[in-house]
Design goal:
mainly alpha, 11 helices, globular
Amino acid sequence: MSLAGSLAASLLATLARPGWWAMALAAFLVRGGILVALLPIIALPTVAGLANAFGPALVGFVFGGPSTTFLVAVGSIAIALLGAIVVGGLLGGGLDLALVRDAARDEDLESGGAPRSGGPGRAFAVRLIAHLPTAAAIAVGALRLVEASYAELIHPGDPSITVAIRVVLRIPEVVAFLAAAWLIGEALGGLAVRHLAWGASVPAAIGRAVRSLVRPSGLATLVVTDSVLAVVVAGSVSAAGVAWAHLRTVLMDVGPASQVRLALVVFSLTWTAGLWLISLAVAWRATAWTFEVGRQRPTGTIESRGA
């Protein structure tokens, strides 16, 4: 099967199976996509808000050393974040494997044996390993990010733009670098999960994921599916943001009840439609990766668990 045929077949298979949309969307949300879904209704902090929220704690930390309250707050946030990553990773791993096994049964994919290996824990492990370069990229870019944030707080830019966007505009190359590292880590993790499901060990799955990604067909699949997902996410978030802004305006102006209901319905439909489109995009991406790995396998073969 050619690359174009694989992408087309994976798209048709995705459109025909609404259950995959739900599983793919759930996997996307539990691995952090919930932040994207909530972005239209989250008010990004202003400089004054950040100063009020963190100023007293930071002043005390700098001039008097860390207080017990400060340490407890930081520790609690770290534990909660770690717990969310682990729980989300395990749930996402289980959903990933379920999607792979369903997609591998598609009649258009001669995958050479059903993918029955792996478990949520191992799937989570390979995704963590795949994101080690992402962690390194974050470490490299953290200093520039802190410097840009400090510069923005000391010399604020256009007040009509939220502080987060102004920081991004100060270091667009760093943000682009981090985004690229994240996308590559996601692709490697997704490919590794698929090799894992077809019987590879964790180290072998990572190695084969790298080889799968650097193939021309792998790079093309990455570019095409992630480009579609980026357009869908940007459009959905923007549309929901506009609808949410209108709803807030109507609520603050205490408009007629009928106008409030209409604005609420418009926002709900816009937000739901955005989630539906995102579910289609992430389900297609997941299926395309399964087809990409499956079509490279020799027909009629399946590896042992420790291969």
